Amino acid sequence: MQSPTDSGTDREGFGRPDWLFGVAGAADAFAVANVRTHAAEALTLDYGHGPWSAPATPEGVLRNMQSSSIVVARNRDDIVGTLRLSTRKPWSIDPSAFTPVRRPIYLTDMAVLPSFQRRGVGKRLLDEAAEISRAWPGDAIRLDAYNANAGAGGFYLKCGYREVGRATYRGTPLIYFERML
């Protein structure tokens, strides 16, 4: 599913970004892993080593594709952002913290190349995730974010997600968010 290009300007204000959004295929596994790894490296440089520091591999991305859809943002031919959608609940999520729905969709592995952050790519990825989730059909998107400076809790709030709880999973403090569809 492709979306039209964004109507805004890039961070410096020069022209329109050539962003396209869609679902990744097997040929995109290396590029998706690259985006996740670069984002993890930037977080590690900024906030130190933590659970956000793990690099991604193309093999792991291919395994993810077997049970989920990986949504990507492209700038021309290059993948610059990604997230993963699944109907399978991640281990770190406690469903009792969320609004009960029949068909929840779980969002994980969101990452944007550091050079493309703060340009609207992440928000547009979340909008695309909502469109895809509605079509599955899904009733809500659920996710967790690190409850740390490296976490993106403020970003999810700005994008229309609602905090529904906090938990610790394997020693990692988390904040749960949802967006009703």
Coarse morphology: globular
* Mean of residue pLDDT values: 91
Distance between the termini: 18 Å
Number of strands: 7
Largest sheet: 7 strands, mixed
Low-confidence stretches: 1-15
Which series of helices and strands comes N to C? EHHEEEHEHEE
Topology overview:
Layout: E1 19-23, H1 29-47, H2 58-67, E2 69-75, E3 78-86, E4 104-112, H3 121-135, E5 140-146, H4 153-158, E6 162-169, E7 172-180
Parallel strand pairs: 4-5
Antiparallel strand pairs: 1-2, 2-3, 3-4, 5-7, 6-7
Helix pairs in contact: 1-2
Task: Give descriptors for this structure.
single chain, 181 residues, alpha+beta, seven-stranded mixed sheet, globular
General description of the model:
The chain has 181 residues and is an alpha+beta fold. It has a single domain (19-180), classed as 3-Layer(aba) Sandwich (Aminopeptidase), CATH 3.40.630.30. 28% of the residues lie in helices and 30% in strands. The chain has four helices and seven strands; from the N terminus they run E-H-H-E-E-E-H-E-H-E-E. Strand 6 and strand 7 form a beta hairpin. Helix 1 crosses helix 2 (58-67). The protein is globular. The protein starts with 18 loop residues before the first strand and ends with a strand. Mean pLDDT is 91; it is low at 1-15.
Summarize the structure.
This protein has 181 residues and is of the alpha+beta class.
